[in-house]
Structure to design on (357 residues):
């Protein structure tokens, strides 16, 4: 039997989903809030949340081991499926001595890659059989959505054994042409390191790793991609070159030359994306794409990483693009405003010149 808190919670989440909200916030002393098209809105028609209500939500959602982690680390992240089959990524944390809860709402089925509006070069990643694909961007940029869409496209198109390592599992897949085993860190395997050790001894065609933070795990991921496995890795970096730098920083200084050589061997693509407001409402994905062409790999091998920026700017016909060029294209097609584009441009001068071409 559902508690009063659960009934109210599901009503609010269902309402939020109907408004196409991405997130729902519950904070003691404030009304619930929803994030729609990137903008946070308080639900003034709802009552101010009391500690008892939010604590009731926490107790109803978290298992004993999750509550123990919350008590120890003051925050915990889980995935939760409600009685109406709605699924959410749930972040519970303490602030000013009170619990707060943020629900990141998830689609009921895996997203379709072709509908995300990404360049064709990204869609072709599904045909690659080995190497490393990095999907990066700030929080809320849709990184995992893109990765999950690539996995679903593979699931629909070819026979492959897929393992995901996630914290937590966001989207539950149904096997189609592929067999997909989804392992949640802390529940199905004790750590990313343990999960990666398992993968290294299995005949895995595709690996998705989401949420890795330990340097040793990054190094293991790159070595797995050196074999016959296609690896999808999400990182937190604002552009493609910073994502590459993040990988390099996972290696001691004495091993950086080896790291660059390894990356030059395995790199398939780096996709750095953002979600931005589009004309007429809603949001769309804008992406910078660096591909592991022979020219890009040569620069990596030689340690001339910063010169990859030139490759990005001059290799459009090969499927690459800078973020500023992608923004300029969207402005010219009237899909986003100039103001939105300038707010997201990496170099306003370069962006301005691209608009004039």
């Amino acid at each position: 039997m559902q508690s009063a808190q659960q009934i109210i919670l599901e009503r609010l989440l269902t309402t939020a989903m109907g408004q196409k909200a991405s997130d729902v916030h519950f904070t003691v002393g404030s009304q619930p809030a929803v994030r729609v098209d990137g903008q946070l809105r308080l639900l003034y028609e709802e009552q101010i949340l009391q500690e008892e209500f939010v604590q009731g939500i926490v107790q109803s959602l978290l298992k004993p081991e999750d509550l123990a982690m919350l008590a120890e680390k003051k925050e915990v992240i889980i995935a939760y499926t409600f009685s109406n089959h709605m699924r959410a990524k749930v972040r519970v944390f303490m602030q000013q001595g009170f619990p707060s809860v943020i629900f990141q709402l998830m689609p009921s089925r895996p997203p379709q890659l072709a509908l995300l509006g990404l360049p064709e070069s990204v869609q072709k990643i599904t045909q690659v059989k080995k190497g490393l694909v990095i999907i990066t961007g700030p929080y809320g940029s849709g990184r995992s959505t893109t990765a999950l869409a690539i996995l679903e496209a593979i699931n629909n198109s070819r026979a492959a054994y897929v393992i995901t390592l996630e914290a937590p599992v966001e989207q539950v897949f149904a096997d189609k042409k592929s067999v997909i085993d989804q392992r949640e860190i802390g529940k199905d395997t004790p750590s990313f390191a343990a999960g990666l050790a398992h993968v290294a001894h299995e005949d895995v065609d595709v690996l998705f790793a989401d949420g890795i933070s330990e340097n040793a795990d990054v190094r293991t991921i790159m070595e797995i991609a050196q074999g016959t496995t296609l690896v999808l890795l999400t990182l937190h970096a604002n552009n493609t070159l910073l994502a590459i730098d993040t990988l390099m920083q996972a290696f001691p200084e004495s091993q950086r030359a080896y790291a660059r050589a390894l990356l030059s061997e395995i790199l398939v693509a780096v996709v750095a994306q953002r979600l931005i407001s589009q004309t007429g409402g809603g949001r769309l994905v804008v992406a910078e794409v660096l591909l592991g062409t022979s020219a890009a790999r040569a620069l990596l091998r030689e340690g001339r990483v910063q010169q990859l920026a030139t490759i990005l700017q001059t290799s459009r016909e090969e499927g690459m693009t800078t973020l500023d060029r992608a923004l300029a294209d969207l402005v010219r097609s009237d899909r986003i405003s100039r103001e939105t584009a300038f707010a997201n441009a990496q170099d306003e001068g370069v962006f301005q010149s691209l608009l004039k071409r």
The chain has two domains: 4-106, 113-321. The longest helix spans residues 4-18. Residues 98 and 247 are 37 Å apart (CA to CA). The radius of gyration is 21 Å.
